[in-house]
Amino acid sequence: MQKLEEHISEVSFPKGHILLRANKVESSIYFIKKGIARLYTQTPDNEITFLFCKEGDTLMSLKSYVTGQKGYEDVELLEDCELYQLKAEVLENLYQSDIHIANWGRKLAELELVKTEERFIARQFRTASERYHELLQLHPDLIQRVQLGHIASYLGISQVSLSRIRAEIR
Amino acid sequence: MQKLEEHISEVSFPKGHILLRANKVESSIYFIKKGIARLYTQTPDNEITFLFCKEGDTLMSLKSYVTGQKGYEDVELLEDCELYQLKAEVLENLYQSDIHIANWGRKLAELELVKTEERFIARQFRTASERYHELLQLHPDLIQRVQLGHIASYLGISQVSLSRIRAEIR
DNA sequence: AAATAAATTTTACAAATGTTAAAAAATACT
DNA sequence: AGTATTTTTTAACATTTGTAAAATTTATTT
Q1: What is the distance in angstroms measured between the alpha-carbon CA of A28 and the sugar C1' of C29?
Q2: Fewer Cβ atoms within 10 Å of its own Cβ: the N or the C terminal residue of chain B?
């Protein structure tokens, strides 16, 4: 960890800033100290928000980081953000020279993988309503901090559907 | 690779064999030499197939492998299978002692992660029909080798819906 | 080959979700 | 405070997908 910290710098960006761009090879990964961001892909007729990252999360263009190819997502900061920045190139060198860091990076990827697979499965056998209520349980702050259009996209439903779901209870 | 091979053994199981069990800590990971398997989770009213693994793929209970906790999936072999087996415990030791293997394991997880995320996003902005035709393009053999009930589950739709989609073209 | 079982398709209807447009509410700006 | 802008909700209708049951096809067994 100490060895990693030597190569990490701290950066800040205002709300609305586009941190990462689709179709670009991104050269850094970030750890969020403060703030929240959304990752989304552009499609012909709209945009799909597929992930939110907040305090404690790792933020990167996954495909870019893993394959060195162009990523498919834009990243927009939804609040003023304070981030820890680590250059991908530096990290790659550390992986090759330090076995502890290599295993840290492995664990990082593995844990993300479990999270993503679990979310994928949940999508397959929960109704939209169940997914909304689960999100409400696990990340109640998200619904406060992020506008509902993005939440709806994240849940894979239209904003109208989300409104209906929210109206059910009251 | 050579160092890995020393610890790998070859095993065979017949069609229908349940290779991995949900709610069990699984002690091995497998690489498929020949055959095909489906990973699925049991739910109160049915089962959800969320992944197929075939020749060249890595097969494991992901959560078990990563966290050492109970997994959530059963794995059924859909054909007679020949597998390479590697004990998780042995692998873990190799990770700690050999930086090349640690980075190989990291790459393994990272590439799976990109695949899973891309599939997750595709699920979010493609219609069921598009997903079926994409599967047909990318893995035409799957539709031949796996019964359609499982394919439907994998695509996240009912078997009736899948039948409708297949009927459209003809 | 006939009988049985399993898998797939079809049908009819119900429920969920999407689309478009408008209204209402909340937020930001001057 | 008042106006403009953005976000959220509501309404009406169209489309998609699901469920259950029957019909058909395919595979398996005797």
Answers
A1: 37
A2: C
